[in-house]
From TrEMBL:
Ketosynthase family 3 (KS3) domain: residues covered: 9-431
Annotated protein name in UniProt: Polyketide synthase
Domain of life of the native organism: Bacteria
Any one Gene Ontology molecular-function term assigned to this protein's record: fatty acid synthase activity
Organism: Antrihabitans stalactiti
CDD domains registered for this protein in UniProt: PKS
Transferase listed as a keyword: yes
Keywords: Transferase
Amino acid sequence: MSSAPAAARDHIVISGMAVEAPGGVDRLESFWAVLSEGREVIGPMPRDRGWPLGELLTLGEREGWGAVPDAGGFLDSAADFDALFFGLSPREAIAMDPQQRVIMRLAWRALENAGVNPASVAGEEAGCYIGVSLSEYGPRAGSANEFTGHRISGYALGSVCGRVSHSLGLTGPSTSVDAACASSLTALHLAANAVRADECEWALAGAVCVMGSPAPFYEFAKNNALAVDGHVRSYADDASGTVWGEGGGVVVVERESRARRLGHRIYGRVLATRINHNGKGKPIIVPSAEAQERLVSKTVAASGIDPGLVTMIEGHGTATPTGDPLELTALQNTYGAAGTGPLLGSVKTNFGHAQAASGILGLLKVLVSADNGQIAPSLYADNPTTQVDWDRSSLRLATKLEHWEPTDGVRYGAMSSFGAGGSNAHAIIAMPAEKEQDNSRL
């Protein structure tokens, strides 16, 4: 528990946010519409990226390989970009990984959402922490063509954050974060700590995923971890694997005193974030319930609140028969043991598994749910897995849109993300029940 009274601490808060997700989602309103209506926006693989669909969709015929469904959550606007708006030449823009283009748009919109003119922040000592994992866009750099000279910055993962800082003129720390599927919440953790330690006055935190190649489909087909029916059935008894997706999101983080002084809206306080690793033992790709339980317990302790206050949990929910039960065990031993009936779900059931960006979509789901006073349903949750004993804890799946009752004017949510390299991340957010700039109840 924290030793400092809540009123005496200058909390790190989220004061702006932006999202892009499959199904044409490019605004918080359309994001909430998909979630609240319980829609699934999975579609066929793109036909305009030059992917070898004939080979991809027949991988299941190889000995020991799983089937690859013609399904995923793909961004409609991944190829769209106003190069001149961001001061880039068309050739340089084409040579840029689409992940850079998407994250530049998101950073601009997040600042606008915070009430900040993005064109006015040049020279500010602000940080930028962006989660990103895989980049296989464009021709190989080891050859000469018309884009040579632009590709070193166009393909590098470090340029994903660098483009944002450069385009906005930010002079604080700028770091791309690759912790696989834990990248988003790790970026939030680093950004919040940087502001807290006065490394920067404020920061952008987020993540992006646009698949430049179908590499993830090959990897999970070989490991029999793709959903054969093209649906992400997180925590369900008939879950057969995941479905890959794309998307991105950015939040603005700053000290609460600064947000209040500038009249920024406070969407929520970042009460605590923690990261850890599974350590040695199982194969690197296999999750660890023990490591996840330690992580959650340490995050709760750092938050200074009773775990029973957390009434919405946005889980990782990859929908693999191995990963989901291990995650549920950790959650049942922590939040479930508090006995207050937190609702659990995963945004992956709506949009697919956005890999490095999955955590930021989960964070945004929690924030917009609190903003609307309702907990969005998790799809396919009416058939919970029988690999865990649900009766021994108060944890339950969010099967329908439900009112989110605040506690003393505040709603508390938690979220988890786990990476294939063994990294784990967890965060706890406190959000005001009233839409006010002066959130005195927080």
